[in-house]
Design brief:
Helix content: over 70%
Largest sheet: none
Number of strands: 0
Shape: globular
Distance between the termini: 48 Å
Order of helices and strands: HHHHHHHH
Radius of gyration: 19 Å
Structural class: mainly alpha
């Protein structure tokens, strides 16, 4: 019993170390890309590492995997970053119009919610499926629509991470990005598996 507890404690500390290291290199490579050009490839690389962990590849070399993905996806992921920046602009305009015209609050809030939830699926879909930009957004939107429970769990995880880091800012350096990405990727990966299972069942009928 004691050996098992020690083994579990060791495994826990090992995973904490992995997430802390991943978060540190995520911040480092974001800064390396002058933030503006580093945030998207760093985030793609981080989600790639976490996806491999979820698929059982826990012993992958973290830095080499991260760096390889960062280089490979630098240009394409920055293209994604431009689109996400445009979506952020749309959300900002929607919030502005809500203040100006209260009568359109409900439809605009629904649009904002749909955009935010779709964006939360963007990076998981990006690293899990080999699709075009248009398919990336279509698939993310579709997955968001058919997985309400996953949406709720993802929002709870995201909001929880936000408030924990807000009240303990020091955690951001070690876990701010990696733990949030871990929660989002884990929820998304479960949704992907459900969809893929249904697709296989449909093909056998």
């Amino acid at each position: 019993m004691k050996k098992r507890s020690i083994s579990h404690l060791y495994a826990l500390t090992e995973w904490i170390s992995r997430f802390a290291f991943l978060n540190i290199i995520w911040i480092g490579f974001t800064i390396l890309g002058l933030i503006l050009f580093g945030i998207s490839p760093s985030t793609v690389a981080m989600f790639t590492v976490i996806r491999k962990w979820l698929m059982g590849q826990s012993d992958i070399p973290i830095f080499q995997t991260f760096w390889g993905t960062y280089k490979k996806e630098f240009l394409r992921s920055n293209g994604l970053g431009v689109v996400l920046a445009l979506l952020a602009g749309i959300i900002y305009l929607d919030l502005y119009f809500i203040k100006v015209n209260a009568s359109i609050q409900i439809p605009l809030y629904l649009i904002i919610f749909a955009i935010v939830m779709t964006v939360l699926y963007i990076f998981p879909v990006y690293v899990h499926y080999n699709v075009t930009f248009i398919q990336l957004f279509k698939n993310s939107f579709f997955i968001m629509l058919v997985n309400p429970i996953s949406n709720i769990l993802m929002l709870i995880g995201f909001v929880t991470s936000f408030f924990v880091i807000k009240y303990i800012p020091g955690l951001f350096f070690f876990f701010g990005g990696s733990m949030t990405a871990g929660l989002i990727m884990a929820t998304s990966y479960t949704a992907f598996q459900k969809i893929e299972k249904k697709q296989k069942e449909a093909q056998t009928i």
